[in-house]
Amino acid sequence: MNIAAFPKYESYQDSGVKWIGKIPASWDVRRGKWLFKRMDRPVRPEDEIVTCFRDGMVTLRSNRRTEGFTNAMKEHGYQGIRKGDFVIHSMDAFAGAIGVSDSDGKSTPVYSACVPRVAGTVEPAFYAYYMRHIALSGLLVAMAKGIRERSTDFRFNDFADLALAAPPIGEQKAIVAFLDGKCATIDEAVRIKEEQIKLLRERRQILIQQAVTRGLNPDAPMKDSGIDWIGQIPAHWEAVPILAVGEVIDPNPSHRNPEYVDEGFPFISTQEFRPGGAIEIDTPRRVSKKTVEEQEDRCKFAKGSLVFSRKGTIGAVRVLPSGIRLGILDSLCVINPNRRVDPTYLFWTLSSDYLVAQYGPTLRGAALPQLSVGRVRSLKIILPPKDEQPKIVQHLERETGKVENAISIKQDQIAALKEYKTSLINAAVTGKIKVI
């Protein structure tokens, strides 16, 4: 994956536009209004809503997803969109919401639906690639500041006045064909690696589940746990409620808002949970000494104290860092393990999938599902004898560490593929490489 391996054009010329720089000698520079015109079509009864997404896809909303959108009571100013239109989302163009529609339909008036000013002289897909390059590289934001200070809109009039590189139509089509093929190959490689990461994460959960419900001795005598979703466990293990192995505390039972300050103590929620069991301490949100002291009066944090999410991302768990004063969001509860359990073993068993089956029928709250602190106390866990717990911890740290390392390698590969894709698009649409 080396951009330098592609051939370059025989000669280049100064475009006369500072931000464009040099372009191939066969290319021209033209303003957006000389290339495209904006359409204003009526809406037809059969038209469905077309959405322009940040990844450059412009398609029927129903093709992508139907949830998470706000539906207008009255569609004031809606316009017709046709397959092949070059579409600019004026309020989201800076984030890459520019593309070519793959469907007929209708859209909000904040979209600019454009067609070539002279049919057959412009390839809309080329300018979709080109304008997304300009947007995602930050050039559009920089130029917009000179157009309208403080505005985050990129309207058709702004596009109309923008100077753009203009290859001959044959080269535009060739660049689009090249990029479509290369991007499809890269996207498929990314999809495969993302699927591999998903399987690795499933493998990690299987390792945890087996270790905390079956132990490390495959020949150990087994017994029925008495819990349908767990099945058999080693005969000398127990099924006990969390309350039997630790104190479960609500850090903020009054649910008063914390006292935020510019300079203060870290404030922890699931947003600060990181892979591998870590907690991000350098948080943007800081709380006052008063907030921390009030929580410390209720929750005597000690080495091995855990936080367990009982709202939103239910079941996420982390071991609190020792020796650091911090505040805790009330969506978390604190678990202080007693002598019956190794704190790190408790972290692993609370991370297992078998707890999830216990949440379902007890979740409260439609908008934000949650468990009460009392319900967290009653959740059943599988408890081996104390002397077996460190061995299980060592096994899980070793084996899940291998999985996490494999995931990290895949994530690095995905990042490299995406960076290469971006570089390839940028090089092709600016003429730094020749693809025909």
Describe the structure.
The protein has helices at residues 32-35, 61-64, 124-136, 139-147, 156-160, 169-214, 289-298, 343-350, 356-359, 373-378, 389-429; strands spanning 12-14, 22-24, 28-31, 36-38, 50-52, 58-60, 79-81, 86-89, 98-100, 105-107, 111-116, 163-166, 222-224, 232-234, 238-241, 246-249, 260-268, 273-274, 278-279, 286-287, 306-309, 317-319, 327-328, 332-337, 380-383. The longest helix has 46 residues, at 169-214. With 436 residues, it is of the alpha+beta class. It has two domains: 3-186 and 417-429, Adenine-n6-DNA-methyltransferase TaqI, Chain A, domain 2 (Alpha-Beta Complex); 217-387, DNA methylase specificity domains (Adenine-n6-DNA-methyltransferase TaqI, Chain A, domain 2, Alpha-Beta Complex), CATH 3.90.220.20.
Q: Average pLDDT across residues?
A: 89
Instruction: Characterize the biggest β-sheet.
Output: 4 strands, antiparallel
Residue stretches low in confidence (pLDDT < 50, at least 5 long) are none
Considering the protein shown, what is the CATH homologous superfamily of the largest domain?
A: DNA methylase specificity domains
Give the count of helical stretches.
11
Strand order across the largest sheet? 4-11-8-9
Number of domains: 2
Structural class estimated from helices and strands: alpha+beta
Instruction: Please indicate the percent range of residues in DSSP E strands (runs of 2 or more).
Output: 15-25%
- Estimate percent helicity: 25-40%
The CATH architecture term of the largest domain is Alpha-Beta Complex
Care to count the β-strands?
25
- Measured between the Cα atoms of the first and last residue, the distance is 18 Å
The CATH topology of the largest domain corresponds to Adenine-n6-DNA-methyltransferase TaqI, Chain A, domain 2
CATH class of the largest domain: Alpha Beta
Q: What general outline do the C-alpha atoms trace? A: elongated
GO biological process, one term: DNA restriction-modification system
Protein name: Restriction endonuclease subunit S
GO molecular function: DNA binding; endonuclease activity
InterPro entries: Restrct_endonuc_typeI_TRD, Restrct_endonuc_typeI_TRD_sf, Type-I_RE_S_subunit
